[in-house]
């Protein structure tokens, strides 16, 4: 039986999936699972969703292992959690080329992680990759693009790449971050045991943009809805 949180989250996710045609019959979908609250929420919701929707699709969780001392323990905890939920998971290792020492920069780390994710998914026959960016990420990206590049646009909810070989989807694009935090807390999941503790966490441009978003919401209660409305208006004009 679904919890009230799951019903509420699935309503939002189903609306996003339908609006952007994110999932179709017969899809083979990899969920990129970092081990944080957002990716765990996404994996669980897409798994549960298959019980209540007519679409049939395959689902595989994928956690890219960083070359850090806690990698194997994180792998064990995530494997146990996915086994409990009934979601298959694989653990490709991030390949750091010769000449690059760990830890690498945020940009290079993201590059290597995405490369490993894309290559492994494609080799295993999965053409869609679900990423756990939520509404706060969408808003923070819009603010970053506006302030740093003078463009008011955000990340795509659906993006075809490599000539259609890989399609990125973001089913949580309309879900506030507070909802994933609350959901994991109610499930009793300790994400500090399942996710990589990045030493630069909270020091990135995205973290600064989220802090700015929070400040704007404190000062202007309609800031979130107004920014979302402006983004939607820009998208319609394109």
Short description:
With 238 residues, this protein is an alpha/beta fold. It has 8 helices and 6 strands. It is globular.
Structural account:
This protein has a 6-stranded mixed sheet with strand order 3-2-1-4-6-5, with helices on both faces. The longest helix is centred in the middle third of the chain and has 18 residues. It has a single domain, classed as HUPs (Rossmann fold, 3-Layer(aba) Sandwich). The chain has 8 helices and 6 strands, in the order H-E-H-E-H-E-H-E-H-E-E-H-H-H. It is an alpha/beta fold and 238 residues long.
Radius of gyration: 18 Å
The share of residues in extended strands comes to 5-15%
* CATH class assignment: Alpha Beta
Identify the CATH homologous superfamily. Answer: HUPs
The overall number of domains is: 1
Q: Residue-averaged pLDDT, rounded?
A: 91
> End-to-end distance, in Å?
42 Å
Low-confidence stretches: none
Secondary structure topology:
Blueprint: H1 4-20, E1 28-32, H2 37-49, E2 58-62, H3 71-85, E3 89-90, H4 106-123, E4 128-130, H5 135-149, E5 158-161, E6 166-169, H6 177-187, H7 205-219, H8 223-237
Parallel strand pairs: 1-2, 1-4, 2-3, 4-6
Antiparallel strand pairs: 5-6
